[in-house]
Amino acid sequence: xxxxxxxxxxxxxxxxxxxxxxxxxxxxxxxxxxxxxxxxxxxxxxxxxxxxxxxxxxxxxxxxxxxxxxxxxxxxxxxxxxxxxxxxxxxxxxxxxxxxxxxxxxxxxxxxxxxxxxxxxxxxxxxxxxxxxxxxxxxxxxxxxxxxxxxxxxxxxxxxxxxxxxxxxxxxxxxxxxxxxxxxxxxxxxxxxxxxxxxxxxxxxxxxxxxxxxxxxxxxxxxxxxxxxxxxxxxxxxxxxxxxxxxxxxxxxxxxxxxxxxxxxxxxxxxxxxxxxxxxxxxxxxxxxxxxxxxxxxxxxxxxxxxxxxxxxxxxxxxxxxxxxxxxxxxxxxxxxxxxxxxxxxxxxxxxxxxxxxxxxxxxxxxxxxxxxxxxxxxxxxxxxxxxxxxxxxxxxxxxxxxxxxxxxxxxxxxxxxxxxxxxxxxxxxxxxxxxxxxxxxxxxxxxxxxxxxxxxxxxxxxxxxxxxxxxxxxxxxxxxxxxxxxxxxxxxx
Length: 494
Hints:
By secondary structure, the chain is of the alpha+beta class. The chain is built from 13 helices and 17 strands.
């Protein structure tokens, strides 16, 4: 308690900065209450634009099997014999599983496939002998909620968040995979609940609600190692098979638990968070600590992808560790932050395309949402005074979002009648470029093509001598704002 009281003042100073660990966009969720379900706008639900994109590519077709059923029953009996779950919990899990199979037999089409995937995923974990006692709470809660949802509730949109009753734990709809327990979204929700109590989110403060959420998440923590816990995902995604973990999700959980411990005066949350730090000391596929592409320590987004370096995920992991160490005085979290932060500073320049950002190293280009997320995380690092490089790139990436494209005609000044001429230009950012050529006020040529940042050209074959006016217009293609730039020049044709 003395540690908590001593940390309150420092935590209050950091509140506004800490809540800026991700975009502050209100989201929406489907709330299931009793026999009904309704979509609601909710400032305490993080925006779906902050998270991984649900996609069907790479979906593993799975189906419930007799072997799978026997594996689940065998795992339940094994943990009961070892007295790792009570008799009442054993019976409850078995009822949940058997009801899910019964409901699945009555469902057809897409609804049946969603529930079928969740059942088969549980069975697959059991067949691999990974259905241990600490995994059962989250897995059977997920199965029960999918069984409740799919027979009659409104079909969700891809990526929708769903919650049930008084529980604030979030499930996310992944097409073909049903409603999946989502640790990152849930811990971000905990941070928003905390923000409401600190006055930075315009919503009524409910400390009881925040406590209920984190108590439930504590029950869903999995002993991924003999020495540490994690919050796992239980579906196939991006080439990874369940159960897997995310460094970003766990660091956000550690951050949320530390903040709530101070707010609610519950040191137990600090102890839980400390038990989750081991993921950042263990190598994949168990943990998330790996060697970064610049040679230092890097924390992975996905435990199953040791060579996928996602810029925003690494930064958010660092922010979570930094905040927990700062808020609670935890030397181990601070040490984990300091071991990896230099690598982040070396990696960030590789996210820069010159006019936009990359989502991952040698991977895909950021969409608008991920570019903004990366910019805000850079700004959060900057606001915490963790390095000038983060300030510089936060400013640069904001400029990419607001500056119009610059297009400049570089030649030629003269051309020959009947000969192919290249109208050359330079361009500052990815744009649709339109070429218009006039003579005596009359439009003779009108072409449009897409060009990346750098040099480009259009081909033109003038059919008569004289002076022509060449005009270029560029409309950038990344921000959605349609920012435009222009240039013109005169060409004499002999």
